[in-house]
Amino acid sequence: MAGQDLYQVVSTGRMLHAKKPEVVTRDIAKLFSIPEAQARRLLLKGWVIRDSLVSSEALEYRARLHKMGLRAEVCPAGKFDNQQLIAKIKVAQRRRASVEAKPSTQTALETASNGKALKEQALKEEKALQSGEDLESPTVTSAKVRGGSATERPETRLTPQKAKSKPEMPEAKGKEKPLFSSKKSTVTTSGVRVLLGLLPAIVTPAVFICVATLCLYGAGALLWQIPQAVWQGELTGATLLFSLGGVTVIVFLMLLLALPYFCFPRDARTQPGEKPLKHSESKDLWRLLEQLSNATKLPRVQALILSPDARVYCAPRFSEVMRQELPLNLGLASVTSLRGSETLALMARNLGLYQGKVNGLLAWLVLDGVRRLELMQWALENERSVLCSRGEPGPLKLFHQMLITCGYFLLPLIERLENLHRALTRRSALYLESRADFWAADLIGSEAFTEFAGNWHRLVHADLMVAEIAREASAVGQCFENIPAAVAWTLENLDEETGKTIELSMSQASDPWDVFEAADLERIESVQQRNLNGRLQRALSLENLFVDFPTLARNISAEASAPDCQVVENRRLLSSSREAEEALEVMDVYFNRLPPLTLLPLRRPASQELQAMDLQSSIDWLRSKLIELRELREQRESARLLMVSIQLGAALIRAKVRIEPQDYSLNSASLAAAQEAAAIKRSELEEIERQLQHIYSVFYQRLCLAVVAMPARERQQARSLLSQLAAYEALATHIERLAGYSTSLAIFAGRLSPDLAERELVQKYLALSARELDATFATVESSELLKAQGLDSALCVKAKREPLQQLPQRHQEALAVVHTMESRCKYAISIILERYQIQLAALLQHCLERERQLDVNPLRLLQAV
């Protein structure tokens, strides 16, 4: 099979021909001559049934499995791996078993604390009964509150005022045991491994030190020629010009190559909204950090920087590492979203990276080297230099522009240096990552680390979601009122499907140089094997250690937003209206969780045979098409994205812009090949659209048959709703074009070159997007039915009718313009579809009620795969 492409046959977990899983399992066991218990694995979604097959063999296996009732797919070899799937299942089983078998460390701590409080109260009640005194109820009440907050799920909220108990402060040690136990630290340092890791870690800094040394030596040698020529009486204009010119060139090279690595200010990339917390503020929090350092021998926190996001990290300087006094960045979203013990574990993990001077030096070389190289790339891509780190050129503007222009050619070199640094320091980075995880487990225990890692993954996902929503809202002049509360709300309201996706993502190996990435399965397994006991002995809430946490969160959120943005309630940005949510529920029932991707075609099927079906026959026919409909929807989205990408690649080739063909789903940089690929993908997408329209036309027929069967009064209301839906047909073309433009602009934003080589093409797409938005506004304003539903005013608020902006010369400003237009297109589509779905759901609700009255066999919901 040399030279041939290999494939694997993968199970989708779905049954065909309405066969039961037990029957399919039995047939597969006979086919492969394996026990039924082993054959059940083949019903798992993503299980590789046969691997490394040529095309004909793979297709033959798939056909045989389809005959037995198991739907399978043929994929390129290596795409799926059974070992990874087994690891995911085992981790999920362990996590579920640990949650069901016993409470988490946090719950156990609070339960113990509550049990002690209740015992003390019982003794107090007994004494009071003997003496005839009245009982003091506040103690009982506070004990019940603490007990309830530990076991009950916090109610859904959009404000930071959560029903949390106020724990005992760290200094209250008179009647309770201390917050941290005095056990000996179980996290050790491998001295030999650290010393051996220092050698490769210093290679990248040594390269820049050598460049700087050579530049200084060259400049000194050239300058020395001037006094030497004076001493010998041979000073001429040519000698002076040669020396000063050479020094100028060397200084330029030093500013371009060496100084950015050492001297470029870190705060040039500071995130908006960061605020240092003074020692006079939140004294309880500073006291807690002091106790943490004393109990664990971790570095002391000498500066605490607060931010509205969920990131917790340390980025110290060399002197701070040697003093073991580090700055700590604390994201308030992690304080709001996680338990106090989990947030403290994140803090201990990041401090533990630099624990010990020699180990801290290794961490500084390994991690800070990547940060410096990434900062250099970011500076060059955003037109920053050592002479102009804030992006505002001064008197040396010409020199600054020369540095930026030459810096573009250095980007590939810097990227290769970063790859070299990662290759040399990979073993050390993995060691540091594992050691940091042990510090977190040393605080909360190995048993609680699994749940902590899951919550960490969900927090990262929620933080990314809120950041994306905030970016899109900023493009239309809006911002969150309280970003930490928004992240907490998003975390608590993640749906089940997203939760499963996050669990599966835990099998992917994390980047050991990225301190923000949550622990993967291998890291969790490594911590569990250590079987560490937690040092934390009591529950705590970090929110209560701040003087006024809600006000602080709102103030920092306001500082993180643009000055011209309007502050709006979190609910307006995070969730749809109640009407929209109810509409989605009705559509899920009517379309069996497969609603139209855009507008429902308001026409019956062309086939006379289908038109002759009654209501029950139409529903039965739709039931037989559900699997096909699901696949067509997935294929449609994939084909649409590929077509847009190919079209952009063809347009860039036509504009003579150099591209990487694979970035645009092309096999070559030939214009003819790109146009041919676009034509093929366009015809494929048209065929998928035709099949989707065919199936959804039967849904419309089902709707019409239900309307005809309604009483006269209800029928009149239903027809009135149908006429309102018909008004949206004029917007179908606009929705399709806006979706294409927003996707194109998103691709441009992700691949915009630093020198804006594709400027003309980007400006063209911006003009097309603006023209389409104007046409959409005009269409809405010309329809009385759409204006009566308030669609025109909603579009003005969300999408904003603004004049077209010319693409700026600077990369970062150009990127902001592209993002703004992308968000305007997306908002226009979302507003139109939301209003449309509310109207459609009102009509579908009447149809569902009529179907129930007629005792029609409903369209059953598919079980989640």
Q: How would you summarize this macromolecular structure in one to three sentences?
A:
The chain is mainly α. The protein has 32 helices and nine strands.
What does the model show?
The chain has 865 residues and is mostly helical. 64% of the residues lie in helices and 6% in strands. The protein has a four-stranded mixed beta sheet with strand order 4-5-7-6. Strands 2-1-3 form a three-stranded antiparallel beta sheet, covered by helices on one side. Helix 8 (203-232) runs antiparallel to helix 9. The model is unreliable at 102-175 and 861-865 (pLDDT under 50).
The geometry reads as globular
Characterize the biggest β-sheet: 4 strands, mixed
Structural class: mainly alpha
Total strands: 9
Helix content: 55-70%
The residue ranges in which pLDDT falls below 50 over 5 or more consecutive positions are 102-175, 861-865
Helical run tally: 32
Our Rg estimate from Cα atoms comes to 32 Å
Biggest sheet: strands side by side, in what order? 4-5-7-6
The overall average pLDDT, rounded, is: 81
Beta content comes to: 5-15%
For the termini, the CA-CA separation is 35 Å
Key descriptive features of the protein:
32 helices, 865 residues, 4-stranded mixed β-sheet, 9 strands, 3-stranded antiparallel β-sheet, disordered C terminus
